[in-house]
């Protein structure tokens, strides 16, 4: 009798299992996002070099200035304006940018899990999501990168792909796919390769069926979605007299940049070195996709997308062979699906009733959350957030975010409105010290050789001479030879320094030597102050 009552009660409570399972799942996603984004935690981490570019330009935008005219960087404008939105949310604090990162990443996780579960079930969905997040943890490099924010767009484009496989004529999904392609492109042209692969496979499938009418209709609606964001962006900068500057920075300069290799290593080998075991799990999935594509079953379009898309990502993510890990973030949507396919193959012999059983789903989500909590605590990530919370609690005395020692020194030893040059290409220090750069051309002297960079180099020196900064801080970075002539000679003798120095670099050094004196040493940084008449 007791046993009958027990099972009766269990049956009555069983409807609650999916609810508890979903709560655990959302808790898992929230914690995974925190785990990865500890790298960009403003309470404990300083902005990286690229992070500094984007947040400085975003800050300039919040003060009414414009990209390419008042702050030049070789990216399309989406990343700058997204940083401006983050600073508006955070009232000038990097915490606002972190919130934008958090929302972006948790959205990408939800999309990827939904895709993988629809294709292959719960366990491949959990496994594939863990794999690409582990890859992101390796490649994020402090966060706020142009490759990071389009991740939800990439996964959303795959969701649209699944929707359009059987109904290619549908207008709204095609328009949305065009919009998503356009937004990914406006972060960085290379980023749109996931959307490009989706579009190519959809059109190829129609061509294989000799359905030319469907191809024409689909191209029309894709263009209807892709063109408005591009045209609106172009019109805005044209209305500001900056359309040519937009093209030169985001397209023409990057064409020269991409054709100028820094290393001889192949993107394939570099990516496999970065991702390690994750790459080989994806390789296993790629081989499976190849074999299963031969069957031409209902999943053939997915296999075709993976077989075409991953090689496209490999060879377009880093055409200039810079080997920057964040470039390889573009591999992650493909590695997620390939990893999910591998896990599906390994678990295929487990009965479906067990794999998709609600109770097993609850146990799987609970175990995944438990293991993530253990890692979060043991790896010191929870401790970093604790430090950040302590700082926020004492923000009136400590400040809401951590700042570098040199930026604090500069703010305390200069006046509001003073221009400061951080020699070594570190505009993040300008942001942290609340001091503007004396020139819009933030990347000097690290440009590659091109007609555009020659013009920029001349403008930079002209800006420095016409409006000399109150302070120049030599950041002591080996890629940029120091201002001190003896140190510069010693570093050049052992091969340090940028391999494409501008023609007027010596003229810059001469100007500084004639007009500045050493004012202070802050750690390894040297502060030069302008001689006053």
Walk me through this protein's architecture.
The structure is a single chain. The chain has 533 residues and is mostly helical. It folds into two domains: 2-383, no CATH class; 405-530, no CATH class. It is 65% helix and 4% strand. The protein has helices spanning 2-13, 16-36, 49-62, 78-89, 94-120, 122-139, 151-164, 171-187, 193-208, 212-239, 243-258, 267-275, 277-293, 300-316, 332-346, 352-355, 358-378, 381-393, 395-398, 405-412, 427-433, 451-466, 485-493, 505-515, and strands at 420-423, 471-474, 516-522, 525-530. Helix 2 (16-36) crosses helix 5 (94-120), helix 3 packs across helix 4 and helix 5 runs antiparallel to helix 6.
Key attributes of the depicted protein:
single chain, 533 residues, mainly alpha, four-stranded mixed sheet, 24 helices, 4 strands, globular, disordered N terminus
Q: State mean pLDDT (0 to 100 scale).
A: 92
Number of strands: 4
How many discrete structural domains?
A: 2
- Low-pLDDT runs of 5+ residues are 1-12
SSE succession: HHHHHHHHHHHHHHHHHHHHEHHEHHEE
Q: Please state the structural category.
A: mainly alpha
Rg (CA only) = 26 Å
Brief account:
Helices cover about 65% and strands about 5% of the residues. It is mainly alpha-helical.
Note the topology.
Blueprint (H helix, E strand, L loop, with lengths): L1 H12 L2 H21 L12 H14 L15 H12 L4 H27 L1 H18 L11 H14 L6 H17 L5 H16 L3 H28 L3 H16 L8 H9 L1 H17 L6 H17 L15 H15 L5 H4 L2 H21 L2 H13 L1 H4 L6 H8 L7 E4 L3 H7 L17 H16 L4 E4 L10 H9 L11 H11 E7 L2 E6 L3
Parallel strand pairs: 1-2
Antiparallel strand pairs: 2-4, 3-4
Helix pairs in contact: 2-5, 2-17, 3-4, 3-21, 4-5, 5-6, 5-7, 6-15, 7-8, 7-9, 8-9, 8-10, 9-14, 13-14, 13-15, 14-15, 20-21
């Amino acid at each position: 009798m007791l046993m009958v009552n027990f099972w009766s009660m269990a049956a009555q409570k069983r409807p609650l299992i999916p609810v508890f399972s979903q709560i655990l799942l959302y808790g898992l996603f929230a914690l995974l996002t925190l785990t990865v984004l500890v790298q960009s935690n403003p309470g404990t981490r300083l902005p990286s070099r690229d992070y500094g570019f984007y947040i400085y330009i975003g800050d300039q935008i919040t003060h009414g200035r414009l990209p390419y005219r008042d702050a030049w960087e070789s990216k399309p404008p989406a990343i700058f304006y997204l940083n401006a939105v983050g600073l508006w949310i955070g009232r000038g604090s990097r915490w606002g940018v972190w919130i934008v990162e958090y929302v972006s990443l948790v959205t990408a996780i939800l999309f990827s899990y939904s895709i993988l579960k629809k294709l292959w079930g719960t366990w491949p969905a959990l496994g594939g999501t863990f794999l690409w997040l582990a890859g992101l943890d390796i490649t994020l490099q402090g966060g706020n990168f142009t490759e990071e924010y389009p991740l939800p767009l990439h996964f959303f484009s795959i969701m649209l792909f699944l929707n359009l496989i059987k109904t290619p004529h549908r207008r709204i999904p095609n328009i949305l796919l065009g919009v998503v392609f356009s937004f990914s492109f406006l972060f960085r042209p290379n980023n749109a390769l996931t959307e490009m692969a989706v579009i190519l496979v959809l059109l190829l499938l129609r061509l294989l069926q000799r359905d030319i009418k469907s191809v024409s209709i689909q191209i029309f609606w894709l263009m209807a979605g892709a063109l408005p964001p591009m045209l609106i962006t172009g019109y805005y900068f044209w209305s500001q007299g900056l359309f040519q500057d937009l093209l030169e920075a985001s397209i023409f300069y990057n064409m020269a940049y991409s054709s100028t290799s820094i290393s001889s290593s192949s993107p394939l080998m570099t990516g496999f070195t970065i991702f390690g075991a994750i790459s080989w799990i994806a390789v296993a999935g790629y081989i499976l996709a190849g074999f299963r594509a031969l069957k031409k079953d209902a999943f053939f379009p997915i296999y075709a997308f993976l077989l075409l898309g991953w090689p496209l990502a490999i060879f377009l993510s880093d055409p200039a062979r810079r080997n920057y890990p964040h470039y390889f973030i573009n591999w992650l949507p493909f590695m997620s699906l390939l990893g999910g396919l591998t896990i599906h193959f390994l678990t295929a012999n487990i009965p479906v009733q067990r794999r998709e059983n609600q109770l097993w789903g609850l146990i799987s989500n609970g175990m995944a959350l438990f293991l993530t909590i253990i890692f979060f605590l043991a790896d010191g990530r929870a401790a970093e957030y604790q430090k950040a919370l302590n700082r926020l609690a004492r923000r009136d005395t400590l400040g809401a975010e951590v700042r570098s020692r040199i930026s604090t020194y500069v703010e305390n030893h200069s006046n509001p409105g003073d221009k400061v040059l951080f020699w070594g290409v570190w505009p993040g220090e300008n942001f942290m010290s609340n001091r503007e750069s004396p020139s819009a051309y933030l990347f000097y002297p690290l440009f590659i050789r091109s007609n555009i960079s020659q013009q920029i180099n001349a403008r930079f020196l002209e800006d420095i001479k016409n409006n000399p900064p109150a302070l120049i801080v030599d950041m002591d970075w080996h890629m940029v030879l120091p201002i001190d002539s003896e140190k510069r000679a010693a570093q050049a003798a052992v091969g340090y320094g940028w391999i494409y120095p501008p023609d007027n670099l010596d003229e810059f050094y001469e100007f500084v030597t004639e007009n500045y004196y050493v004012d202070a040493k802050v750690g390894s940084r040297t502060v030069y102050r302008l001689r006053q008449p």
